[in-house]
Amino acid sequence: MAETDDQATALELRPKPSLRLGLSGKLLLLTIPLVMIAGLLIYVAAIANFRINRLNDRLAAANTAALVLDAAPSGFVPETLARQILTSIGARAVAIKMGQQRRLLASADLPAAIDHDVDMRKITVWSAIVDAFELMLERGDQTIRVVGPAPGQAQFIEVVIDEKPLRAAMYRFSRNSLVVALLIAALTAGLVYLALHYLFVRPMRRLTASLVGFHENPESSARIIVPSQRGDEIGVAERELSDMQRDLVSMLHQKSRLAALGLAVSKINHDLRNLLASSQLLSDQLASVPDPRVQRFAPKLLRSLERAIAFCQSTLSYGRAQEAAPDRRMILVEPAVAEVRESAGLATDASITWISAIERGLTIDADPDQLFRVLLNLVRNAAQALESRPASDGGARQVRITGRREGTVTIIEVSDTGPGVPAKAREHLFEAFQTSGRPGGSGLGLAIAAELIRAHGGQIHLVEGTIGATFRLSIPDRPVELLSIRNERARA
Fold this sequence. Notes:
- The protein contains 12 helices and 12 strands.
- By secondary structure, the protein is α+β, with helices and mostly antiparallel strands.
- Among the domains are: 23-187, no CATH class; 325-388 and 396-491, Heat Shock Protein 90 (2-Layer Sandwich), CATH 3.30.565.
- The strands form 3 sheets. Strands 2-1-5-4-3 form a 5-stranded mixed sheet. The protein has a 5-stranded mixed sheet with strand order 7-9-10-12-11, covered by helices on one side.
- Strand 9 (398-406) and strand 10 (409-416) form a beta hairpin.
- Helix 6 (233-286) runs antiparallel to helix 7.
- The protein starts with a helix and ends with a helix.
- InterPro entries: 2C_sensor_his_kinase, HATPase_C_sf, HATPase_dom, His_kinase_dom, Sig_transdc_His_kin-like_C.
- The chain crosses the membrane at residues 27-48, 177-200.
- GO terms for molecular function: ATP binding; protein histidine kinase activity.
- It is an enzyme of class 2 (transferase).
């Protein structure tokens, strides 16, 4: 019931999806104004250039008209012809300056005053833009005097024109530019949107969908994203996400098996204790039997029963990450190795040759029980590896244990002449539930051994380039100060 309430609370606290624009909509809304801003900047330059070109066209037409008017006999041009020429070039007057003389070639309906002067010889970019927008914002029929270079010996030519036709032309140009800009903006925004959508938005949606689906069921390998062949950052993100999901699925499966093992051991632990307790009572009675052989093996039987209970509890403790800290002291290695041999059943197994090459008087600073567990796991693994190799194949079936000291470090090697460790198993050699290759194996032996050795501050690894499999474990002595304190406490 409490778990149901917690789940309901988690669902209430989870943010609800809103009806906001997705990444595609935001991308589209961002692209359109950016394209419009670019079009506006282009329009500002275009409208200023349009005005300058119109004024230059008037000057060019005025230059042509000046040649015609100046070529008239005695400089006299009929008024009707002058009006026709001025109407054709869209001007009210044309004047030219030669030397110190300023000559009015033709005029018609000149205003009393000129409203604006524009000298095309001194115009700048900024002034062209400002004058263009000032012209468009004005009202009424005002006049402009445009001054520009003149052909031949003349210094400059002047033409007086009305603003209204020019303003109307600029409005038409602006309207046409706006329509073209909208079409270009829509086309550009659409192309940019489609390009970004297929290059970025769709892959991001795929990543998001994979994350959401994986969050709903993180133990399902079907929810793992299949990375594409892209070589950019999105391809890297897909491959890294796929690897992370695979590692997480494997880890969750391992945790699930570990939890199941812990639950199973906890269920059978009570009944197993009762059975072993009965065995202990029977073995206690064997201690009163005067047979020398019984007296010799009875203590070992009691010790084996105690260790059986401890091994059952150690499996549960490993599942709960509650391995006890090692109770270290200096012990002889050779008696511990002999006890491991008897417990593994190799003392009476004639099919497997046992070789012990321990330095005489070699000691190790370790917990006796935990060292026994580590060596027993390694020896049993070696014996099980040799079981897959029949004795009739002509090869020697050996288990070899060597021990030596290098300074303050004790090194013990357990090797066999079996088939060795498969390459696939070496990737997760000391991980729980990963390395067992035999039916019924739990894959816990090497994981427990590695944890116990690490608790001693030592290391365990597989030695490469040997026949069969060779595991080397090294345990350093504790600092002298710590040893002296422990010894004083033991004497007290």
